[in-house]
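Record 1 of the preview.
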Amino acid sequence: VQLVQSGGGLVQPGGSLRLSCAASGFTFSRHPMNWYRQAPGKERELVATISAARNTYFADSVKGRFTISRDNAKNTVYLQMNNLQPEDTAVYYCNLGAYWGQGTQVTVSS
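->
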């Protein structure tokens, strides 16, 4: 299993970013996919989940601002982040069970 992330970077408050996670080594369409984040000095937290049936879950802190989607033809899961705030600053990780992407830094600052 390999999860390769892209996207992220520095954005001003109120801005948007999209993270991508390209998966390989398993039947992508059959598995739920997760996005986690870890801010400095804090524990890693679940941000969003999308099931194989495309049901979604969002942490309360991002509900209404973030969306998660998947493209099974491309074996890719996305995290669209809108109206970003400084408290969203963290390293974001794509996840499937015991497998993790390499992490992507998202920094929200003016």
